[in-house]
Amino acid sequence: MDVLIFACLAFAGAVVPTVMYVYLVYWLDRYEREPLWLLTLAFLWGAVPAIVLAIIPQMALDSLIVGALGKGRAADALTYAVSAPLTEEAAKGIFLIGLLLLFWQQVDDPLDGIVYGAMVGFGFALPENVLYFAGAYGDGGVGGLLVNIILRNVLFGFNHAFFTACTGLGLGWARSHVGLFARVGAPVAGWLAAVTFHGLHNLGASLAEATACLSFIGAFFSDWIGILAMLALMLWFLSRQRRWLVDELRPELASGLLTADEYAVVVSSSKRASARLSALFTQGWGAYRRLGKFFAAATDLAFTKHQLRSYGEERGNSAEIARLRERLRALRGAAL
User: Fold this and answer.
1) How many CA atoms lie within 13 A of 327 on its CB side?
2) Which of 179, 160, 182 is nearest to 171 (CA)?
3) Inter-CA distances, 54 with 160, 202, 238, Å
């Protein structure tokens, strides 16, 4: 019975909020949502390989710190604030580097980097939370478990996603900008920001008892200031993506590829959603999917035209634009 109670509460406290948070980030990426298989891969990387890769170097750093300072509160605080952030953010960031090298075409701007970083972070947090919940249940029963759920998945539910989103922001910036700082400095700055915020949180949590919870409150404000700042950046990048749609698809009106009414719908996320819901309720699931493919092709066309304007050919952007125009023409006939 105890195992069943723990399993039900752990599922409700770990899995359900994670699903909600993942969907929220996915929903915020309004115009060009990333492939589900690649987002799933990012999540799974965080949930398994990143944790495994972080364990051995983290133990090695912990040993060095304890060896230098001896066992005690100072060594404990330093292991939480230094070794865990360094090793965990490095292990999570490996996926984002691989993404940029192997699937660079899926990263159009910093927003994409933020989304992938958040998915890796959510994946990392899920098994970690279950382990913490098991310890809390063993120490304090149902009450201890519920307190841990509130702390880790309500007050600090976005933390790991936010930390790794900082790394993703830096790598996304490197993808969409030129120059030494953008290509080298931005990824390093993003990773250092992830480590810093992670370290501040861990330090505040580890010193909570010694500081009468003042450090814990400081960690709370540090985390949420960063999370809200990241949300503001996401909204700004979304507005920039809409400008790309408006500017790059306007010439397609003259060519007849889009009508004025279609253009007005394609460049508005709210009108897109309304049009797809109307298609779903009046014509069924097939029409809903066809319209989604039409909007996706229009977005891909606008973003590829922006890439051509910003980066030049970059492995055949002109040919891709021609292909997307033909695809959009074919989808337009099927969808509309």
Assistant:
1) 17
2) 182
3) 14, 16, 33
The answer to whether residues 144 and 67 touch, using CB atoms and an 8 Å cutoff, is no
Burial of residue 233 (CB within 10 Å: 0-12, 13-18, 19+) is middle
- Interatomic CA distance for residues 85 and 82, integer angstroms: 6
Q: Which two tokens stand for residue 118?
A: 């958040």
> What's the half-sphere exposure (Cβ side, CA atoms, 13 Å) at 302?
26
Q: List CB contacts of 277: < 8 A, sequence separation 6 or more.
A: 288
CB 162 within 8 A of CB 197: yes
Distance CA 75, CA 324 (A): 57
- Averaged pLDDT, groups of 10, the chain, 336 residues long: 72 87 93 91 96 93 85 81 94 94 85 96 93 79 82 91 97 85 90 96 86 88 95 95 94 90 92 92 91 92 88 81 92 71
End-to-end CA distance of the chain: 56
* pLDDT tens-digit map of 24-63: 999 998 888 899 999 999 999 999 999 999 999 999 998 8
Contact 42, 120 (CB under 8 A): yes
Percentage helix, strand, coil for the chain under 3-state DSSP, each rounded to 5: 85, 0, 15
How far is 302 from 321, CA to CA, in rounded Å? 9
What pLDDT is attached to residue 136?
76
Element (H, E) at 198: helix 186-206
Would you call 257 helix, strand, or coil by DSSP?
coil
